[in-house]
Amino acid sequence: MVGVEGIRDEGAPAVTDSATTGRALPHPECEQIRLESVLHALSDSMRLRIVRELAATEAELSCSFFDLPVTKSTTTHHFRVLRESGVIRQVYRGTAKMNGLRRDDLDRLFPGLLDSLLAAADRQAARIGG
């Protein structure tokens, strides 16, 4: 991320998307995505639920599409964790923040991981409901 003096902070995720409104959200470059961060992001049931819904539609969905049983600020936190770990990409389209699964990047870095985790989540949901 570029700081106030125009110097890149190497520890910060790179900004890879900007909206037509000039708002940009930081995302890690593909090469910066770490397995530990992805697994941590997907270890939470709400975040896994978001990813399962994104994977099922294979389209961008707005944050308001998701009906999570948590507060708005907690929902925002979950999306931020997913974005900063490299699991999702968020961009502004007008006033809506749109979310898309970074399947291509994840499949390239960790072949089969996402499909295995999603299949396991589906089996668990069938077993215990939800």
Count of DSSP helices?
5
What class do helices, strands and sheet pairing give? alpha+beta
| Helix share bin | 40-55%
Main sheet strand line-up? 3-5-4
* Percentage of residues in strands: 15-25%
Largest sheet report: 3 strands, antiparallel
Order of helices and strands: EEHHEHEEHH
What's the gyration radius in Å?
Answer: 15 Å
> Assembly state here?
single chain
How far apart are the first and last residues' alpha carbons, in Å?
Answer: 39 Å
Shape: globular
Unreliable spans are 1-21
Mean pLDDT: 85
Say how many strands there are.
Answer: 5
Q: If you had to describe this structure to a student in words, what would you say it looks like?
A:
With 130 residues, the chain is an alpha+beta fold. The chain is built from 5 helices and 5 strands, in the order ββααβαββαα. It has helices at residues 35-42, 45-57, 72-85, 103-109, 113-128; strands spanning 15-18, 24-26, 61-62, 88-93, 96-101. The chain has a 3-stranded antiparallel β-sheet. A hairpin with a 5-residue loop joins strand 1 (15-18) and strand 2 (24-26). Helix 1 runs antiparallel to helix 3 (72-85). The longest helix is centred in the C-terminal third of the chain and has 16 residues, at 113-128. The N and C termini lie far apart (39 Å).
